[in-house]
Predict the structure.
Amino acid sequence: MRSLGMAVVLFLIIRTFLLEAFQIPSGSMERTLLAGDFLFVNKAVYGAQIPGTNARLPAFHTPHRGDVMVFAYPKDPTLSYVKRVIGEPGDVVEMRQSQVYVNGRALEESYVQRVDPLHDGFDSEFNWQREYLMGTQEQRRRYHPTRDTWGPLRVPMGKYFVLGDNRDNSSDSRYWGFVDQSAVKGRPLLVYFSYDRGTRDALPWLMDIRWSRLGSLIR
């Protein structure tokens, strides 16, 4: 019983402060991450939160542009999302006809996947952007953002702007806003298991394993 108790305590410490498993439920990060991928997330790198408090352990790094990170979904903190950091605090971000610009410079994004590039349109969820739009009151009033053309937006201090790699099929900062620094949970390390969730086999987790993805690092 003493050995079992020590093992449980050790497991809880590792899960709380060092590593946690995370499953990808959707295709919003394809091709980088696929639905059915299981990840190990490094919680220590950005400073793990101490349970029951708002305090965090000292961080080794802060999220940088291009990092893939796991965070608490702003509209429902009980859910964990994974996206790529596009804008850091103080950055000016925008998209023009699907091309992302940060501080006026176009980003080279080899990781981006487009599945429906012709279907661009306005969504009422974009209305939050007006408050952060760089420009005059008249420009804010006439602002009409779409999925692939929006901004420029100033990222507030202590916030991050994130996008999914699958740009045409991702619920991200374009729709619901910035990610607060306190909501950041960690950075994915590697895929420890993966199976094709789209198959109709009775046991896809056993019959449809993606062997080539096991152990792959996440960048």
